[in-house]
């Protein structure tokens, strides 16, 4: 086995909120961002073409919060085409944002993206390690159902924000691991005032699999990180005994720089322990695009075994979970990854439980059709596995990885 | 090794009075569902529909999250406590036989002896 995979003992996933690939990483040249978009534009409601501009601001720009519920995302992806056999064209972002405020000039701001220098943490990690330029949200819809795919490999038929009722037989990735000792797993929410966003059900029944971000930092320092960790950011501005906590999830209209600091703190915590740094892979990914533009049309995918009714989708059409959502930023960090790696295979959040299960548990059943068909971003090597699929491919560990301060 | 300086967050980014987003509203609803399933003593007195700001949402979410952890910790502690040893069927039968052999005292006698003392 390649030494990087041989050394790998921990997988950490940090899932941020509501930003698209082009919005966050589109300015980085040569990775499939704006320079790959050609003459991409969106018509506004007057019919005038609007082009992406590097004018995104850290806060106070995306007000109101861009709509990213199922019907709005349908408009964003397909323009206004509802005919059978329609083709995704990514032409409806400006029109969708216009619907919220009926302000033509304001609707153009949905096509704004950050300059590379605005986001030194995310863009540095993207260029230093492996950036996925075809990682899509699991559903063309909002947060809760998308995050569910990261935990269960399915949303159990949901395309909305309602409470997730977990249907057997698909267990969470945490259940799978803690049910197979000596494997371990933990979901770290930021603090109890931020708590977990998507899986209140899991918190209610298995609070022991949860920890706080302070515990994550301590576990990194003491080398007691579980096999698999999922880290949630802080979802709200709130007071604590130790001071003011600024929301760092990057959900509009929270400050994007606070998220940059948070991403850096997760990276630093792992890198700060030399032994942990050598045997940990960190995936940074966003749950969905938050209604913000991207130029790459999401592909079709294997249907899940659930179907959302026409009433559930709000589009007048049922949805068989046979198409992915909008493209989001995703970066894999490890000192065993060659600098400047670009991965163009298709992934979605079902790839997270698929990868973790395959790496730590091997064959596992039952899993949702979406999860079993999802590609994995780390996989044990064997005679049947193409070595080119291994991203932790270096023979020796890098010593030139960046530091953030 | 490259050292990247991460810009600080401006002070005015912090605003706990910011109105709750749709995402937080949904989290509050989910938390309220969880709270309703807790025994009464672990619930709090905040009315979720009255929550308007991020700061208020955070306080409610904190109380429910801590209530869930506390309820589970207490339940685990109760489970860990050794249960009182119960008498088996044979032991109970033996005690019953023993009682049957004892002389039965009348209530009057008992009272009498009680008065004496």
Describe the fold and architecture.
The complex is a heterodimer of chains A (405) and B (117). By secondary structure, chain A is of the alpha/beta class. Helices cover 28% and strands 12% of the residues of chain A. Chain A is built from 15 helices and 13 strands. In chain A, helix 3 (70-78) crosses helix 4 (93-101). Chain A is globular and about 60 Å long. Chain A starts with a helix and ends with a strand. Chain B has 117 residues and is mainly alpha-helical. Chain B is 56% helix and 2% strand. Chain B has four helices and one strand; from the N terminus they run E-H-H-H-H. The N and C termini of chain B lie far apart (93 Å). The radius of gyration of chain B is 31 Å and the shape is elongated. At the A-B interface, helix 6, helix 9, helix 11 and strand 13 of A face strand 1, helix 1 and helix 2 of B.
Relevant terms:
heterodimer; A: 405 residues; alpha/beta; Alkaline Phosphatase, subunit A; 8-stranded mixed sheet; 12% strand; B: 117 residues; mainly alpha; 2% strand; disordered C terminus
The amount of beta strand of chain A, in percent, is 5-15%
Query: Which sequence of SSEs, written as H and E, runs from N to C of chain B?
Result: EHHHH
The DSSP helix count of chain A reads 15
The CATH topology assignment of chain A is Alkaline Phosphatase, subunit A
pLDDT < 50 stretches of chain A: none
Report the principal-axis shape of chain A: globular
Radius of gyration of chain B: 31 Å
Class computed from helices, strands and strand pairing of chain B: mainly alpha
Q: Based on the coordinates given, report the CATH architecture of chain A.
A: 3-Layer(aba) Sandwich
Low-confidence stretches of chain B: 103-117
Find the biggest chain interface: A-B, 49 and 40 residues
Summed over residues and divided by their number, the pLDDT of chain A gives a mean of: 95
What is the C-level CATH assignment of chain A?
A: Alpha Beta
- The largest beta-sheet of chain A arranges its strands as 6-5-7-1-10-11-4-12
Largest sheet of chain B: none
């Amino acid at each position: 086995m390649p030494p990087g995979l041989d050394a790998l003992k921990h997988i950490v996933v940090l899932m941020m909120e509501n930003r698209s690939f082009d919005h966050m990483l589109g300015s980085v040249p040569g990775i499939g961002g704006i320079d790959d978009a050609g003459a991409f534009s969106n018509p506004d409601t007057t019919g005038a073409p609007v082009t992406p501009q590097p004018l995104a601001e850290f806060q106070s720009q995306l007000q109101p919060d861009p709509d990213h519920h199922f019907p709005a995302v349908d408009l964003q992806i397909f323009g206004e085409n509802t005919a059978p056999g329609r083709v995704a064209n990514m032409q409806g972002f400006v029109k969708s944002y216009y619907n919220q405020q009926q302000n033509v000039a304001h609707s153009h701001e949905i096509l704004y993206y950050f300059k590379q220098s605005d986001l030194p943490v995310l863009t540095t990690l993207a260029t230093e390690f492996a950036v996925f330029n075809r990682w899509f949200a699991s559903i063309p819809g909002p947060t809760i159902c998308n995050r569910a795919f990261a935990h269960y490999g399915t949303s159990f038929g949901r395309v909305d924000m309602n409470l997730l009722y977990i249907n057997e037989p698909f267990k969470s990735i945490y259940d799978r691991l803690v049910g197979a000792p000596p494997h371990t797993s933990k979901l770290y929410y930021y603090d109890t005032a931020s708590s977990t966003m998507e899986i209140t059900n899991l918190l209610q029944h298995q609070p022991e699999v949860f920890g706080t971000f302070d515990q994550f930092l301590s576990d990194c320092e003491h080398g007691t990180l579980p096999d698999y960790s999922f880290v949630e950011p802080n979802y709200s501005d709130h007071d604590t005994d130790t001071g003011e906590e600024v929301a760092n999830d990057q959900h509009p209209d929270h400050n994007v720089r606070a998220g940059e600091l948070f991403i850096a703190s997760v990276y630093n915590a792992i890198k700060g322990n030399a032994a942990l740094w050598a045997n940990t892979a960190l995936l940074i990914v966003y749950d969905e695009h938050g209604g913000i533009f991207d130029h790459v049309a999401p592909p079709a995918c294997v249907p899940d075994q659930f179907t959302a009714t026409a009433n559930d989708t709000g589009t007048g059409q049922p949805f068989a979970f046979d198409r992915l959502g909008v493209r989001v930023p995703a970066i894999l960090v490890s000192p065993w990854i060659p600098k400047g790696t670009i991965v163009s295979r298709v992934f979605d959040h079902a790839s997270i439980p698929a990868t973790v299960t395959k790496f730590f548990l091997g064959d596992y059943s039952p899993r949702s059709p979406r999860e079993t068909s999802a590609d994995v971003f780390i996989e044990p090597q064997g005679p049947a596995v193409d070595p080119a699929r291994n991203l932790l491919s270096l023979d020796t560990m890098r010593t030139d990885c960046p530091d953030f301060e | 090794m490259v050292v990247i300086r991460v810009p600080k967050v401006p002070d005015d980014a912090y605003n706990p009075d910011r109105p709750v987003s749709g995402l937080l509203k949904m989290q509050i609803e989910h938390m309220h569902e969880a709270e309703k399933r807790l025994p009464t003593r672990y619930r709090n007195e905040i009315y979720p529909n009255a929550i308007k700001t991020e700061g208020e949402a955070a306080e409610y979410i904190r109380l429910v999250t801590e209530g869930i952890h506390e309820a589970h910790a207490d339940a685990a502690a109760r489970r860990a406590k050794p249960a009182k040893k119960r008498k088996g069927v044979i032991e109970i039968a033996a005690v019953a036989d023993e009682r049957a052999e004892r002389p039965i005292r009348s209530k009057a006698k008992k009272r009498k002896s009680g008065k004496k003392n």
